[in-house]
Specification:
By secondary structure, the chain is mainly alpha-helical. The protein folds into two domains: about 90 residues, Rna Polymerase Sigma Factor, Chain: A (Orthogonal Bundle), CATH 1.10.1740; about 60 residues, Orthogonal Bundle (Arc Repressor Mutant, subunit A), CATH 1.10.10.10. Helices cover about 80% and strands about 0% of the residues. About 15% of the residues are buried.
């Protein structure tokens, strides 16, 4: 007579597809169901289960309990996050906290942007064009090279030169 673990593993292998389908309907997610069914297998192999008279029913019950544990954990986590968020928003009683930067941070950012724009204006025309295409338009070095008819190496040198000059002015 096979031991309890091997009987449950055989039942698991025979019912795996049914288990995934069953839990996909309950969780409304095939990925979550796959994870849950994998957890069933892990539980079967981690500890020696007691002998069971109906391995199929045992697998469904084990999966159901794991699913409930997950849902409870997710609810607790969401509640904890909501409570933390509420505390952060109104911790000093002054109302909701704003995600907007402080006036000092906004001013400093505006000043850095002005220095960057002035620094870009001082760059040689092609270096500025390459830098803008790469950094602001999001083109790769190869795309910039193709559009301007220059080598990829030249693009790299222009970007490097622009960064070096802009950082020198920032310091």
């Amino acid at each position: 007579m096979p031991d309890a673990t091997s009987a449950l593993i055989e039942a698991y292998l025979a019912k795996r597809t049914e288990l995934v389908r069953f839990f996909t309907l309950r969780l409304r997610s095939a990925e979550a169901a796959e994870d849950l069914v994998q957890d069933i297998y892990v539980r079967l192999t981690d500890a020696a289960p007691p002998p069971v008279s109906n391995p199929g029913a045992f697998l469904y019950r084990l999966g159901w309990n794991l699913m409930l544990d997950r849902l409870r954990s997710q609810r607790r986590s969401a509640r904890r996050d909501d409570e933390w968020s509420q505390l952060e928003r109104c911790g000093d009683g002054a109302g909701d906290a704003s995600d907007a930067p402080s006036q000092e941070d906004a001013l400093a950012s505006r000043q850095r942007l002005e220095r960057l724009v002035k620094g870009l204006d001082r760059l040689p025309a092609q270096t500025r064009q390459v830098f803008v295409m790469h950094k602001f338009e999001g083109l790769t070095h190869t795309e910039v090279a193709h559009r301007l008819g220059i080598s990829r190496s030249a693009v790299e040198k222009h970007v490097s030169t622009a960064l070096r000059r802009l950082l020198e002015r920032e310091a």
